[in-house]
Each structure stands twice: as C-alpha cells, then as structure tokens.
Amino acid sequence: MIELRDLHVTFGRGTPLEKQALRGIDLTIPAGQFVTVIGSNGAGKSTVLGALAGDVIAEAGTVAIDGTDVTRWSTPRRAGLVARVLQDPMAGTCASLSIEENMALAAARGRRRGLGPAVGPSQRSGFRDRVAELGLGLENRLGDQMGLLSGGQRQAVSLLMATLAGSRILLLDEHTAALDPSTAEFVLDLTRRIVSGHGLTTLMVTHSMRHALDHGDRTIMLHEGKIVLDVGGAERTGLDVPDLLAMFSRVRGRELADDGLLIG
Amino acid sequence: MSVIALLGAAELGLVFSLVALGVFLSFRVLDFPDLTVDGSFPLGAAVAATLIVAEWNPWAATGLAMVAGALAGIVTATLNVRFKILHLLASILTMIALFSVNLRVMGKPNVAIITQDTVLTPFYGLGLSDAVLRPVFVLVVVLVVVALLARFLTSEFGLAMRATGVNARMARAQGVSTDLHIYAGMALSNALVALAGALFAQTNGFADVTSGIGTIVIGLAAVIVGETVVRSRVILWMLVGCVVGSILYRIAIQLALNTDFIGLQASDLNLVTALLVAGALILPRLGNPLRAKGGTAAKGGRVAG
C-alpha cells in the first residue's frame, strides 16, 4: 500500500528557475492496485515516482509504504520495497555487465551484499527459468553483455529484474516510450502479466491516454503538481480517449478561469 | 639485453603490476581517475621501511603500509563523495599532501633498509640466486592478489562495486550504496598501490620520497598494454592482463634504454613512458579511418576510454 500525504516538492528553491513540481499530492493506493498516471510535460508525473523511489526528497508531506514512513529514506534504502523501470532502456541496466550479473544485482536488492559469489550455479538456473518466461530466447545468452540486447529486450529484462527481490511496488516511468509500437505492445503485455502474476502495487506513467485507459484499474491525471482527475471502477470503464481529452481541457480551462479571476 | 637485466625488468614489472591492479580498480571498475597513487606508492614504501628500521616484523610492516595506503584512498574518496570535490582534483590534493606526510613518516627523504630483514630474508637461503628469487617471490604475491581480487570482484559486494562504476543511478535503484562502494574501492585500490611501494622498498633496499613520481602513468600504461594484449571480458583475464601489461611495459622500457643507437639515458625514462602511453592511446584511433575523420575524436578524450 502507498500513501502520499500533502506532498510538496520544489526544485531550485530560491533561484530564478524555482519550480514547484508538486503542490500537495494526496494519494492512497491499496495493495495490488494498478494505477496509470497521465498529464502534460512538467505536470509532476515523474516527480511523484521519484518521491516514491527516493530520488526526490519531499520538502513537506509524507510518503508511507505498507504503513512505514519512508519520507526521509534514501534510494538504496527503499530499494527493497520499491522496484522501478525507467524510460531509457540504457538507464535501468548496466550495459557492460552480463544479463545474469544485472539480474544478480537486482536479486540482492534490499539485503546485505556479502562476499559470496554473485552468480552461483543455483542462481544461474533460477535466472535461466525466469528469463525463459519472457519467450525471447535469452535463456541461452545469460553471459552476454546487457548492451548487446535491443531496447525492447532490455526493458523486458528490467521488468523481470523488478520482480526478483520480492518488492511489492512497481514504478514504471514511461517504460515503453522509447520503443517502437509493436515492441511497446509486447512490453506492455509483459507488464500486465508480471503485475497480475505477482499482485504488484503498480504506478505506470504514460504519455498515451489509450494505454492509460487500457491498462490497470485506476487512472489519475496530474496538472501543475496536483491531482486533477482520479477515476476508477465503473466510471473509468465507460471512458474513452475523447472523454479524457475533454476532461483534460476542462481542467485547464478552469485553471485559466482561476487565473483570470486573479488578474481581474 | 642480458638475462639479469630481463629478470630485473620482470621483477619491476611484477611489483608495478600491483599498481596496475590498483589503477584498474579506480580507473576501470569505479571510473574514478585517481592520482592519489603517486603519493600512496611512496607512502607504502615509507611506512614499510620506517617500521622495518624500527625492527618490526616485515610482514606486519607491509600490512601497516597497506592500511596507510587504504587511508589515503579513503581521504580522496571523502573529498569527492562527502565534499563533492571533482575526483581528479580531490586525488591531486591527497597526492600533494602525502609528499609531506611521507617526509614526516621517514623523517628524511631517503631510508635505506638494505641491511635489514625483509619479507624476502627467509627465502634467501633456499639456493636460488637473488636475481631469480626476487621476481619469483613477487610473482607469488601477485598471483595471490590476482586470485583474491578476481574472487572479490565476482562476489555480490564486488559486483555492486562494478555496477557503481558503470551506472551509479541504476546501482542505487538496486539498493547499492554507491558511496560505500566508492570508499571501499578507493581504499582497496590504494592499499594495493601501497603494497607495491612496500615490496619495492624491500626488493630494492630503500624508500625514497620521490619514488612516486609518475606512478599513475606507469600503472595506466600497464592497464592499457594489458587490455591490448589480453582481450577478454572475464574479470580474471582482465586482471591477468594488467600483470602481463605491466611486465611487457617494463621490458619494452628496458629494451629502449638498453638500445645504444637510440641514445637514450635512464633520465629519459619519464619521457619514454609518456610517449608510450600517448602512443597506446592514439594508435587505436589511427587504425580506423572513419573514426579518425568523424566527431568521435572529441568524445575519445577520456583517459579511461
């Protein structure tokens, strides 16, 4: 379970480039729920994920995961609770390490790393079985460098890595945005299988309203650092992309009207 | 070149292969260009020699020399990690400071231990001539270090250290405390360099405060030569490459200095070294005509390329 309470984040405070990225986010996500997040550039989508993963430390408000207040925890400390797949396939893996070494790194998330071998025979066979699930034929290439894989293959392995250490929360930051449409579909399909298979609490940021509605149980829309739309259940089932677009422009229009009042 | 000269070159190459292994850890594994080694090499020599003169057990003296080297590495890592000083500058600050520290440790610029008991003393009676014994002894030490280091770098902790150097952001997201691994890696790297200094003092019979000048270039040269000769992505072979590179480099230098018609003197050593390293960095780029013309030349400026 994820609980964000009145979360505020400001970048570059006191400089001319000061930006209020989050202005009071309240969000509760029950365990096992799959939430899609949309919003325009700079709306605060990635900042919300960053605040959950620990890359961004909130200046006000709290972040709680499964009832534990993790607001002040660093990224490595949270890694046992939260797994993350990034937009750039290069960023989420180590290109010059082998597939199995990348997996071993992920499998040791959240526990002490000792001087035992990182990849022993038992881990290797475990990794092979897991990679075989992807159906990409990578199970015979465990020793290959990660950098030799295509973007789609790397994202698929990244998703797999997110499940190796038993963390209950998965953060997906536009993880299909850098892929061609058919590869993106494959990765999304894999995402759905992995999320439901492991019952993961998931936040997926996407630029595609189509994807946002087709996947998951609930959709939230961010605008200027606030949640402006939160739909789930039956209400969401009836929604289509044009409805969402209409809501989006209505929200922006309301904002303009507010500004107009201020100026007037 | 005589057999004695060849053995001498091999011995020196083996001693400096420990420097190469340390440089491999900082430059290649951690992607941390570390010049501290120019100070931690004579530091190792100074600590070992001073303690040996004070009648310490030479093994204990060598161990303490390594601890001193590790501390020097931690100082550089602290300046960089904790106080955000650029890694290159942080290491230069430590290096400069160590010159004074080394003079304090020894109390004078040069300490002779030629008549003292060293780690080699027990083996002198075994019937091997000194010229053979010394390189064999250092070889055994180097092989043990290589085996331990290969085991370390393939352990969970070592893998996390390699990830820290390759992709620190990813490493942090996987729960790796990158700061801890930079401290540990820099300590280990400089401990190995100090071990080289301690062995250098004991095989040559003296410690000198100026003996560190250019250590980093020699270590880097060995790493680069090794990468050219031993092409592998397996950690063990990469480490063996550092050792082979170090020995080959010394033999090449020895040949250059011994070839009379070139007219080189011992004092030309640093110039020859710099030219060799520059050549080793430039030559691979000349081989590919597409690269030579393209914009990659600008990117290729990084030493650890």
TrEMBL record, chain A:
Keyword Disulfide bond attributed: no
This protein's UniProt keywords: ATP-binding, Cell membrane, Membrane, Nucleotide-binding, Transport
Statement: the UniProt record of this protein carries the keyword Amino-acid biosynthesis: no
Gene Ontology cellular-component annotations: plasma membrane
Family annotation (Pfam families): ABC_tran (PF00005)
Membrane topology, as annotated: Peripheral membrane protein
UniProt GO MF annotations: ATP binding; ATP hydrolysis activity
Main localisation: membrane
Occurrences of domain ABC transporter (ranges): 2-249
Top-level taxon of the source organism: Bacteria
SUPFAM superfamilies tied to this protein: P-loop containing nucleoside triphosphate hydrolases (SSF52540)
Localization, UniProt: Cell membrane
Family note: Belongs to the ABC transporter superfamily.
Entry protein name: ABC transporter ATP-binding protein
Organism: Skermanella stibiiresistens SB22
Upper taxonomic lineage: Bacteria, Pseudomonadati, Pseudomonadota, Alphaproteobacteria, Rhodospirillales
From TrEMBL, chain B:
Cellular component, GO, one term: plasma membrane
Domain of life: Bacteria
Keyword Membrane: yes
Localisation per UniProt entry: Cell membrane
Assigned keywords, A-Z: Cell membrane, Membrane, Transmembrane, Transmembrane helix
Primary site of residence: membrane
Membrane-crossing segments per the record: 6-28, 59-79, 86-105, 136-159, 180-200, 206-225, 234-256, 262-283
Keyword Transport annotated: no
InterPro entries attached to this UniProt entry: ABC_transp_permease (IPR001851)
GO function term, MF aspect, one: transmembrane transporter activity
Matches recorded under Pfam families: BPD_transp_2
Membrane topology summary: Multi-pass membrane protein
Entry-linked PANTHER family: ABC TRANSPORTER PERMEASE PROTEIN YPHD-RELATED-RELATED (PTHR32196), BRANCHED-CHAIN AMINO ACID TRANSPORT SYSTEM, PERMEASE PROTEIN (PTHR32196:SF69)
Protein name per its UniProtKB record: ABC transporter permease
Taxonomic source organism: Skermanella stibiiresistens SB22
Lineage: Bacteria, Pseudomonadati, Pseudomonadota, Alphaproteobacteria, Rhodospirillales
